[in-house]
TrEMBL record:
This is RRM domain-containing protein. One of its GO terms (molecular function) is nucleic acid binding. Residues 217-235 have a biased composition (Low complexity). It comes from the Eukaryota. Residues 212-235 are annotated as: Disordered. The lineage of its organism: Eukaryota, Fungi, Dikarya, Basidiomycota, Agaricomycotina.
Length: 235
């Protein structure tokens, strides 16, 4: 990784790359302070990290290259758990945008092209479909999916989301972004974003907004009890 800003700390650089990919170490080139060697624990993580070539960190555009052609590992047909490296590249790019990092449209297009070339991980597809069916079964009844229900009009979808949240209490047990997103009026759009390779740059920006919005809502709901407690103590 080269082109690193003089204001970028080792911690900040580590956060930038380890946010999406498991790293084993990073080592500065003492002869050239703006260059760092970054090693990853998985070849697929290193391959995906190349997607960030041209990304911005602390106002400086990074050059991310590798002398090795990294291949993705053989997939395990399991749906109960996924790693960051199992996710679609476009989804990872959306997470970076939601976290506040700057990625140019050319970087986002590269993420889309990587998904189109590789396809969506079977492991991730199984995981996502299981969430869709599990949430649908709990909220709507046996053999129902959330995304299948949301093929109705937007008004009906919004009402259905309200029913899912208020009557079934799904939102109280939804502890991760994907589950909450599938149970929202945008459920079908979210499902399509993560399970198809036919995306546009705008789709990544829209998903980043949804992730950011959900994060802010979680932060607000977490902070409210603390504020109430403080008021009670003051009183």
């Amino acid at each position: 990784v080269s082109g690193i800003s003089k204001t970028t700390t080792e911690t900040h650089l580590h956060d930038f790359f380890s946010y999406a990919f498991p790293m084993s170490y990073q080592k500065y080139n003492h002869k050239n302070e703006d260059t760092v060697l970054v090693a990853f624990t998985k070849p697929s993580a290193a391959r995906t990290a190349l997607m960030l070539n041209g990304g911005s960190l602390d106002g400086s555009n990074l050059s991310v290259t590798s002398d090795v052609v990294h291949q993705d590992e053989p997939e395990e047909n399991k749906a109960e758990h996924i790693d960051q490296t199992d996710k679609p590249r476009a989804g990872i790019a959306a997470e970076y945008l939601a976290k506040g990092y700057t990625l140019s449209d050319s970087v986002l297009q590269r993420a889309i092209e990587m998904d189109q070339q590789k396809g969506i991980s079977k492991r991730f597809l199984n995981y996502f479909s299981a969430l869709d069916a599990g949430l649908g079964s709990k909220a709507l009844g046996p053999d129902q999916t959330i995304t299948g229900k949301f093929q109705e009009s937007l008004a009906a979808a919004t009402q259905q989301a309200k029913t899912v949240d208020e009557q079934k209490g799904v939102s109280k047990t939804a502890h991760e972004y994907y589950t909450k997103a599938l149970g929202s009026p945008f459920g079908k759009k979210v499902f399509e974003f993560y399970t198809t390779t036919s995306k546009q740059v705008l789709d990544i920006h829209e998903e980043a907004k949804r992730i950011s919005s959900t994060h802010k809502a979680n932060t607000t709901s977490t902070a409210e009890p603390a504020a109430t407690t403080a008021t009670e103590k003051t009183t």
